[in-house]
Design goal:
Elements: H1 8-28, H2 37-50, H3 56-60, E1 72-76, E2 83-90, E3 116-120, E4 130-131, E5 147-151, E6 156-159, E7 172-176, E8 181-183, E9 197-199, E10 204-207, E11 221-223, E12 228-231, E13 245-247, E14 252-255, E15 269-271, E16 276-277, E17 293-295, E18 318-320, E19 327-328, E20 342-344, E21 349-352, E22 366-368, E23 373-377, H4 382-388, E24 392-393, E25 399-402, E26 414-416, E27 421-422, H5 423-426, E28 432-438, E29 441-446, E30 462-464
Parallel strand pairs: 2-3, 3-5, 4-6, 5-7, 6-8, 7-9, 8-10, 9-11, 10-12, 11-13, 12-14, 13-15, 14-16, 15-17, 17-18, 18-20, 19-21, 20-22, 21-23, 22-24, 23-25, 25-27
Antiparallel strand pairs: 1-2, 26-30, 28-29, 28-30
């Protein structure tokens, strides 16, 4: 038997309860009130000091948050349930662009609920250099700013303000690509305990890397590349247990690669290229099981051998050790790097044979062994040679030779290598070459000295495979 239909009285009661519930929700969560007039005035001062895109007072109306423009984000606050400025973006359309006479917006730091401030490509007028300044430290103690990004400002000048250390809520600090930002890194930045990402790259910063940065235990990314930092790499950086990216490349750093680096077990990207580092790489690099990029090229390492241990980093995708004076053989353990896509060892003092196992690295697409002292038969089969094509460079190794079995006429893939010769003819004529191509012209036999490459890149003779 079907249940009885609900009576009209029951239906009415349910409707009344539903309406009461809706009313109670509206009472419990009233709409946020308009922005406080004092905060509105501060916002307008910021806008007028940076951008001339429009009449900001007219655009703001009584409540800027009621119809925010691109680059302005608001959020409700706790006090008096008013709306507050939470984010400001300047420089890149559709966000407000910056006027030629823009000044650094000190008033922005007085916005009580501001969480993010972006100034990207703002200060570009060479005739109106803007000073990189912050309000007095006493005015920053209540700041809730979590992200500050000051990027690509060629006319922003000055040192990194020491008051940055008073922005205790900061999680992301980016001051990058500002050529006139100079001087040392304030020691107090090492006290920003909540910092997750610190990017000070592409400035003109000098002095040592502060050891106190090792106290930023929650740091995930640290990029100090393309500055003029000097001295050794601080061992305290090894305390950054959460660090995934460390880029100190293109500075004037000296000394060795500290053993403390091997404690960075979360590291996926390590770049120390273009410095003055010397000596052996530290033992224990194989403990960096998540490392994918190891970029150490252009350092005068001083004739040390390549450590076989590098072959035991299972996730390594790029290994760049060029122009660093390494000596001895290429470790056979490199054949174990099954994730490797790029191996760059050019312009060292490497000797001996090319490990045959390199040809079994299925993900390899770029291999440069040029300008070394390697010798013997090139151990790569035709499939490997076809796959790499011009991304394989063996030039500048007079002792290397290639067998007829490795040469497959008609495939038409050029493999750079001025000095790679056919094994079966090298004994009779060391300078003979077979199947070489210069700018599309096939030649056979002895080359006039004037035709040999003037530059490895500009004129590349090739084996025609």
């Amino acid at each position: 038997m079907a249940p009885p239909a609900p009576s009209s009285r029951t239906t009415l009661s349910r409707a009344v309860l539903y309406l009461l519930l809706l009313l109670s929700l509206q009472v419990a969560a009233p709409a946020a009130a308009a922005m406080d007039p004092a905060e509105r005035e501060t916002l307008l001062r910021v806008m007028e000091s940076v951008s001339a895109d429009r009449d900001w007072r007219e655009a703001a109306g009584a409540d800027p948050c009621s119809a925010p423009w691109p680059g302005l984000e608001c959020r409700p606050g706790t006090a008096a349930a008013r709306m507050h400025v939470a984010r400001l973006d300047f420089g890149v359309p559709p966000h407000p662009t910056c006027r030629d006479t823009a000044t650094f917006p000190l008033a922005a730091f007085a916005l009580p609920e501001l969480r993010s401030l972006f100034l990207v490509g703002c200060f570009r007028n060479p005739r109106a250099v803007a000073a990189f300044t912050l309000p007095p430290a006493s005015n920053l103690s209540a700041s809730r700013l979590q992200q500050l990004s000051v990027r690509s400002n060629p006319s922003l000048a000055g040192a990194l303000p020491p008051q940055l250390a008073r922005l205790r809520s900061l999680r992301v600090l980016t001051v990058s690509q500002n050529a006139l930002v100079r001087g040392a890194v304030p020691e107090g930045i090492g006290d920003l305990a909540g910092l997750v990402h610190l990017d000070l790259s592409y400035n003109s910063l000098t002095g040592p890397i502060p050891a106190r940065l090792g106290g930023l235990r929650g740091l995930v990314g640290l990029d100090l590349s393309y500055n003029s930092f000097s001295g050794p790499i601080p061992g305290r950086l090894g305390d950054l247990a959460q660090l995934q990216k460390l880029d100190l490349s293109s500075n004037n750093l000296t000394g060795g690669v500290p053993a403390a680096v091997t404690r960075l077990r979360a590291l996926t990207f390590l770049a120390l290229a273009n410095n003055g580092l010397r000596g052996r790489l530290p033992a224990g690099l194989s403990a960096l099981r998540d490392l994918q990029y190891l970029i150490l090229e252009n350092n005068p390492m001083g004739g040390v051998p390549l450590p076989p241990e590098l072959g035991n980093i299972p996730r390594l995708q790029e290994l760049r050790l060029a122009n660093s004076g390494y000596s001895g053989p290429i470790p056979d353990t490199f054949r174990l790097l099954s994730s490797l896509t790029t191996l760059s060892l050019e312009n060292n003092n490497l000797t001996g044979r090319i490990p045959p196992g390199l040809s079994r690295l299925k993900r390899m697409y770029h291999l440069n062994l040029s300008k070394n002292g390697l010798d013997g038969v090139v151990p790569f089969d035709a499939a490997f040679l076809r796959r790499l094509g011009r991304n394989l460079d063996l030039s500048g190794n007079p002792g290397l030779c290639v067998t007829n079995r490795a040469v497959m006429p008609g495939v038409g893939v050029g493999v750079c290598g001025d000095d790679v010769v056919d094994c079966e003819r090298s004994a009779a004529a060391e300078s003979s070459v077979v199947g070489r191509v210069v700018r599309g012209e096939v030649t056979t036999g002895r080359w006039p000295a004037g035709l040999l490459r003037p530059a490895a890149v500009a004129l590349c003779s090739c084996l025609l495979l």
